[in-house]
Amino acid sequence: MPLLKVTDLRTHFHTRSGVYRAVDGISFHLDRGETLGIVGESGSGKSVTVHSLMGLVPRPPGRIESGSAIFDGVDLLNCPPATLRSIRGKRISMIFQDPMTSLNPYLRVSEQLIEPLLIHEKITKADALKRALSMLEEVGINDAAKRIHYYPHEFSGGMRQRVMIAMALITKPELLIADEPTTALDVTVQAQILDLIKKMRREAGMAVIFITHDLGVVSGLCDRVLVMYAGRIVETADIRTLFYQPKHPYTRALQRSIPSTQPKGAELFTIPGMPPDISKPIVGCAFAPRCEHAADLCRSGVPELVPIANDHEQACLRVQAGEL
Amino acid sequence: MQSVAKNSDPGSVILELRDIKTHFPVRQGFLFRKQTGTVKAVDGVSLSVQHGEVLGLVGESGCGKSTLARTIMQLLPTTGGSVILEGKNLTQSTASSVHDIRRDLQMVFQDPYASLNPRMTVFATLAEPMLVHRVCKPAEVVSKVSQLMELVGLAPRFMQKYPHEFSGGQRQRIAIARALALQPKVIIADEPVSALDVSVQAQILNLLASLVRKMGLSLVFIAHDLSVVKHISDRVAVMYLGRIVELGRAVDVIENPQHPYTRALVSAIPLPNPDAERARQRIMLPGDPPSPINPPSGCAFHPRCPYVQERCKAVVPPLIAFQNHDVACVRLGEV
Fold this sequence. Notes:
Helix content of chain A is about 35%, strand content about 25%. By secondary structure, chain A is an alpha/beta fold. The mean pLDDT of chain A is about 90.
């Protein structure tokens, strides 16, 4: 049985200017100890997907229209708030993109680190502090005994992200959700943080959902990848298949637009146009207006995610028809 | 635009930096603020940019890239050294002549959300530099603005829209159009694609590359992403803690890096290839760049360098020509 099974999740935002279908019917699963990457451009619904699972979608304007997310037998989308609170921060933790804004600037790091322990475990403050200290050492903060009493502004960006990771892992979660944790960091610090996530994953045997828009980051870290476009999954495959035999035109276009894979000085490949306006109903395939292979079929038919091989599903109608 | 003739003579130096130093005082205390130290954000940078050349400038945050850009633009006072644009020394110029020089030297900033005035329409944003510098008659402004918008790939019918009505990539196009409004000779772009999605990044890079070709511009392109810099630049300068540690043709520097810091930077780029990415040995740099308030002695990189020796702590290495490019490392050729 998978650790997490999401079925037909739809999260819409009801605003004055219309209904934004940020996540529009996605299903996926995650096994214990597995690392799943979610890739897509800004606005594709990656973050809203995981925020929905964690109950972090502001309501209103957000509303979860349908779907279930079974985490070890509990439906995260339809369970009493107390149950969700006992899971969130304990068995599922999350780290965010910007460690400057997601740590509380008024509280010492020590207080923020022990908060999840004090909430979820019967533990004294002194014992919690001891655990926090060993956790900080584990994520590679030198001189942790002194620095644990610092405020967030006394740390650099990479160090703050380490503190966030320590905070997320201190309750030994079974699932870590990382929402673009390295996007705001330098490449050298990004390499350190990715290395740290790999090490902690190996030691704790936890599952990871890693959100990013950088295919390069995904390639070294993830076992399987979901590619999202306009609130839907367009392709999902294990990491090697996705990189070496991508099927969906959007996945292929994303890969072709990475500068390092293109000859120097030549015009870079770009995807023409812009992502669609998700507040308007989309007829046919959402990617069709930007797709070089779009045919009449794509503008009328409804693309569904269809398996084409073991663990490889994709939603292009022309690929399914055997035309591409 | 008809600026091709103006920016002719490729190969000659248009912008020269001689031993630029930009230091900031550190003050402490409440009433009688005493200077307790100096941040040497840029500490002795010499560079030249040729007509029609793209010079990439890379380094981690805090290495002084943006300070250097602002120093070139005369947005920050220089502590020492000189910025020479076409024979004119900007650091010794009066305010009014700097004003005139800005016509030839323009800047594009990182964050197109912060660098455009939210209360000005695209028309007002693009017309302002032309009116301030009186480059055209007021009657011609509308047609000039629409030409500019077309040049950067925006439809002129959006002239009366405000920045919030555009996406990030479109805003960056407006910022580029604003920089081009005076037909400058040199553009300094400070991380112009870092805030953008991969697919939009490629569009902006293509736009910059085609503008450089079409208008004969020189471009100083600042970024922390080496793969982007390699793609667009003719030459690359790698900065660490206010100094240049490696300088040369983009292919030489990135495919054959000699300074241990450049090697670490190159090895930190994630490869979009699962097998290669998992198989390779990464040079992991410990820690963060040191504080420029209190820089390490000798080579500033020595506390993080895997090849450090005693003598690295003693002398500041100068840039020395080695294998087609310049490298500042004491152990050059040994490691």
